[in-house]
């Protein structure tokens, strides 16, 4: 397979296993490029990309911008907080105004699930979903799987538990789809109130005991509790959440095997994971961030190769 089966990256659920394989093989090449003294290739000198962030972001926004610049694309950045969206402009009008300045690709983070799909039906540009509400965060799942592949050799056959606020997590949903496409087994673990009722229908195991989940897995992906998406209390207190679902050095040391520990960031140190675990050799959290640039270069490069020019 030499090109993606999709014209946009809207969610992992639209991808085939071969798409993921192609993205990873392309990312392997770009990872080598970004470790050279000159970390740039001229591949996308004729492409202009707009990064539209309607929600806060540190890692994803910087990672996309670096990926685009390392491919030599022209880049424009848009932040909703300082834009005319505040004056009542619609999403379509905002994007069409940006596109009339000859933009070829839009990377968008938006609080509404499905915003990327909506945009792809109304504007003539390649769309990359950088997180749409509690729905999908496809490039995060791709860089997570890429990092597992790097640490453990392959994703197929591995047991991965996703721990925490599954209910509000786009990272969880995209990871479930991505891991299953690659032949991994997936478990979710968290308080019952933060596990969606339908979750078993996705073919995942469900566990509410953190120790049992960790004893089962090869990889634990620890998620942040997304207080900003909660209108009610889903557990009695942060202290109680941490007592039941926080990953500590004592717990990690009590396991009879070494597991790989992941976190998509931002971390709430001392809540879902303690600092000594987050900064340990078993944690690949900063590898995930590094790999994010190579994986996003691969996604952008492969989508750009489908632009007629
Ligand atoms: N992992 C992630 O999406 O982080 P940001 O919200 O900082 O982009």
Automatic annotation (TrEMBL):
Q: Where is the Aspartate/ornithine carbamoyltransferase carbamoyl-P binding domain?
A: 8-150
Any Pfam family matching the protein? OTCace_N
Catalysed reactions listed for this entry: carbamoyl phosphate + L-aspartate = N-carbamoyl-L-aspartate + phosphate + H(+)
InterPro entries per UniProt = Asp/Orn_carbamoyltranf_P-bd (IPR006132), Asp/Orn_carbamoylTrfase (IPR006130), Asp/Orn_carbamoylTrfase_sf (IPR036901), Asp_carbamoyltransf (IPR002082), Asp_carbamoyltransf_Asp/Orn-bd (IPR006131)
Q: What keywords are annotated for this sequence in UniProt?
A: Pyrimidine biosynthesis, Transferase
Top-rank taxon of the source lineage equals Bacteria
The Gene Ontology biological process annotation of the record reads: 'de novo' pyrimidine nucleobase biosynthetic process; 'de novo' UMP biosynthetic process; amino acid metabolic process
Pathway noted in the entry? Pyrimidine metabolism; UMP biosynthesis via de novo pathway; (S)-dihydroorotate from bicarbonate: step 2/3
The positions annotated for binding L-aspartate are 87, 170, 224
Q: What Gene Ontology molecular function terms does this protein carry?
A: amino acid binding; aspartate carbamoyltransferase activity
- The residues covered by the Aspartate/ornithine carbamoyltransferase Asp/Orn-binding domain are 157-302
Binding positions for carbamoyl phosphate? 59-60, 109, 137, 140, 265-266
EC number(s): the record gives: 2.1.3.2
Role description: Catalyzes the condensation of carbamoyl phosphate and aspartate to form carbamoyl aspartate and inorganic phosphate, the committed step in the de novo pyrimidine nucleotide biosynthesis pathway.
Give the quaternary structure: Heterododecamer (2C3:3R2) of six catalytic PyrB chains organized as two trimers (C3), and six regulatory PyrI chains organized as three dimers (R2).
Q: Which family does it belong to?
A: Belongs to the aspartate/ornithine carbamoyltransferase superfamily. ATCase family.
State what protein this is by name. Aspartate carbamoyltransferase
**Its encoding gene is what?**
pyrB
């Amino acid at each position: 397979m030499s090109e993606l089966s999709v014209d946009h990256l809207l969610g992992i659920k639209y991808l085939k296993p071969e798409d993921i394989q192609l993205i990873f093989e392309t990312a392997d090449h770009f990872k080598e490029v970004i470790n050279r003294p000159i970390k740039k290739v001229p591949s996308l000198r004729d492409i202009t990309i707009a990064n539209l962030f309607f929600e806060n972001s540190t890692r994803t926004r910087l990672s996309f911008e670096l990926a685009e610049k390392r491919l030599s694309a022209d880049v424009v950045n848009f932040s909703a907080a300082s834009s005319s969206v505040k004056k009542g402009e619609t999403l379509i009008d905002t994007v069409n105004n940006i596109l009339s300045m000859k933009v070829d690709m839009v990377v968008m983070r938006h609080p509404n699930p499905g915003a990327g799909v909506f945009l792809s039906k109304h504007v003539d540009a390649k769309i990359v979903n950088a997180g749409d509400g509690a729905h999908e965060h496809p490039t995060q799942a791709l860089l997570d799987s890429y990092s597992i592949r790097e640490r453990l050799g392959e994703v197929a056959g591995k047991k991965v538990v996703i721990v925490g606020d599954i209910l509000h997590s786009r990272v969880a949903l995209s990871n479930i789809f991505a891991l299953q496409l690659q032949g991994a087994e997936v478990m979710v673990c968290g308080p019952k109130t933060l596990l969606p009722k339908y979750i078993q229908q996705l073919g995942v195991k469900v566990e509410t005991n953190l120790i049992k989940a960790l004893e089962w897995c090869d990889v634990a992906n620890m998620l942040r509790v997304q207080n900003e998406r909660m209108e009610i209390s889903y557990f009695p207190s942060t202290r109680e959440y941490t007592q039941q679902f926080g990953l500590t050095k004592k717990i990690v040391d009590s396991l009879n095997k070494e597991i790989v520990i992941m976190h998509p960031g931002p971390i709430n140190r001392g809540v879902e994971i303690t600092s000594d675990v987050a900064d340990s050799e078993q944690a690949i959290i900063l590898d995930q961030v590094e790999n994010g640039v190579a994986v996003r270069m691969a996604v952008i490069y492969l989508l750009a190769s489908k632009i007629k020019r």
